[in-house]
Specification:
The structure is a homodimer of 221-residue chains. Chain A is an all-alpha fold. In chain A, helix 6 crosses helix 7 and helix 7 packs across helix 8. The first copy, chain A, starts with 5 loop residues before the first helix and ends in a 30-residue tail after the last helix. Chain A binds a DNA duplex (30 and 30 nucleotides) through helix 3.
Chain lengths: 221, 221
DNA sequence: TCGCGGATTGGACGGATGCGCAATATCGTC
DNA sequence: GACGATATTGCGCATCCGTCCAATCCGCGA
């Protein structure tokens, strides 16, 4: 394998780990898998990472924080809190075979036994909640929302979305993405004192930020 | 190991698998673990189960359906739909180190790759939703609840609870069991047209049906 | 052009994995 | 008491695991 600078190689390893984790699941991703995915030797992985736990945590972080920043960028770019909220639902609700959300399921399950994974998962969950809470506070400030407890409301909306999306990803046919969006936006409208349908309006279609491509992009810049 | 009838031995294997899965996680439970847990040989497990997938599915089913029937029994025994709903929240909300809910996390993550686990997980989730929907319909019928879509409302309440509980179990300190119950009951009150605090009243204390003991009970009748 | 340091290799290590099979032990039944 | 059925054993098989390390290769500065 051609030589690379320390940072580039780390990136390449993480990217390969993501590709494998998407295919086989976080818990079943092995050092050899990652090495053969990028056509190098297994020893190389341990030259850059202390343990497999760290590799998996980095892989999960790469995917999850990419989703978070992409969504966050779109949300802060929105002109009104209402528009930002619509962006949130559009980008967060998973598609049918959303490998990105499947990684979340893997991470939550692994969190109990892998400290590095738990730390990342917890931090990113907190950041999502903070992002949503910020939008709610902005909406309350400018009068579009009515909400007594922005922090709690953010947790409720986020968790409802997680719980419903989980059914879609884990079980497939139980409920669908459209149900997830419709039910969550409905709950959010009540949560924020919005009229019925204020959020529902045609935000269920197209242009997702996650799960669009079945394969992660190539590593490096 | 002393001889047992075909049914008893199957039960014993499943019980041992539960004990190991609680300790090590569903995904990391191996044939040898189960065998040594009950002091027998690994060949015995393969004599009773086609594959490890089936063993894990049976182990998960044992725990999860036990919770479901215990909770269901208490709910139908309740005198009013409101009381039944309180039982639901009290029994479903997980404690801090709830191994039973951790198994749900494991199952949801494994569902994508283990058909037998997926089938059980999906079925039990549907049964929980059906149980809750039945209570809501009963409450609507006798006038205590107001709800246009009992099925959707049941999914929302259940999923909100799952999403919040997930944070407690996977991340520990992010939010607590009290938050989970308070926020979910609050959402349920709005969902079912109940006055504030109708459900909250002191249902957060004591007497859980799940996660009470750190170890599963013995097999057999 | 040489040498050095770091990137990279590839396999050794002890142990674990699911699964399958021949051998054995122990029962109920005649 | 002997027999047949079957529950149970214990190990073999091929493959995999994470970790570790000596050897090798290569590019860059001198």
């Amino acid at each position: 394998m051609s030589r690379m600078s320390r940072g580039d190689r780390r990136d390449a390893i993480v990217a390969a780990a993501v590709a494998v984790a998407v295919r086989k699941g976080l818990a079943s991703t092995t050092v050899r898998d990652v090495a053969s995915e990028m056509g190098t030797s297994s020893g190389l992985i341990h030259h850059y990472f202390e343990s497999m736990d760290d590799v998996l945590a980095a892989a999960f972080k790469r995917v999850a924080s990419q989703d978070l920043t992409a969504s966050g960028r779109q949300m802060v770019a929105a002109e009104t809190p209402l528009a930002a909220l619509k962006v949130f639902f559009r980008t967060y609700a998973p598609a049918d075979k959303d490998w990105s959300f499947q990684l979340w399921l893997d991470a939550w399950a692994e969190a109990a036994r892998r400290p590095a994974v738990r730390a990342i998962s917890r931090q990113l969950n907190l950041e999502w909640q903070g992002l949503l809470e910020g939008v709610i506070r902005a909406g309350v400030a400018d009068g579009t929302f009515t909400c007594a407890e922005p922090a709690a409301a953010a947790w409720r909306i986020l968790s409802l979305l997680d719980g419903l999306a989980l059914q879609v990803i884990a079980h497939g046919t139980t409920i669908g993405r459209d149900d997830v969006i419709a039910w969550t936006t409905g709950a959010a409208e009540r949560e924020l004192g919005l009229p019925d349908g204020a959020l529902a309006a045609r935000c269920a279609r197209r242009g997702r930020a996650r799960g669009t491509s079945p394969r992660p992009g190539p590593p490096g810049a």
